Amino acid sequence: MTAVERTTYDVFETDLGWVAVVGSEHGVLRASLPESSPEAALDAVQPEVGLAKHDPERHADSRMLITAYCAGEPVNLGDVPIDTRRISPFFKKAWEACRSIPSGETRSYRWLAEQAGNVRATRGAGQAMARNKLALLVPCHRVIGSSGALHGFGGAGLPLKSRLLAMESRNQH
Predict the structure, then answer these.
(1) What gap in Å lies between CA 111 and CA 115, rounded to an integer?
(2) pLDDT tens for residues 123-161?
(3) Collapsed DSSP state (helix, strand, coil) of residue 82
(4) Which residues in the chain show pLDDT less than 70?
(5) 98 catalytic, yes or no?
(6) For 89-155, which CATH class?
(7) The whole model's pTM is what?
(8) Among residues 19, 44, 98, 140, which one is catalytic?
(9) Pairing between strand 27-31 and 17-24?
(10) Could you tell me which of 74, 66, 77 has the C-alpha nearest to residue 18?
């Protein structure tokens, strides 16, 4: 991202809480998990939001899809373009693999590492999820331990991860 590139943001309320998104002309750069207030959502997208201009119209499509998703509607957040130009090749592959996990399904960190091109990089796959700047758009809540147990999740933590998976599972039936 160059200094002259224009970034914009929006913050909006959903059924699960407030969500903030920051984007460039290439797609969303950063998105928060649902938070308790607009301020908390904006804090979650730091530092990218710092130089961005508030432009809700530019994020209308993302807002519509994320709002529908948080209302429990079966939408594909994979349709929201993301900007991964500044992400390492391994993280980019891991994020792309994560986005390919169907809604309501889960995969292991090992599977994610395999899809990203290094079967032995399970910890690296975990780091790719831990450093995910695109909450919900890169659905890291769908990645679980090989035992089937839920592991680390930002924002509201494992209760939110569990809630998202349950919501998606209901949409599959």
Answers:
(1) 6
(2) 999 899 989 999 899 998 888 877 666 666 655 576 777
(3) strand
(4) 1-4, 147-156, 158, 172-173
(5) no
(6) mainly alpha
(7) 0.88
(8) 140
(9) antiparallel
(10) 66
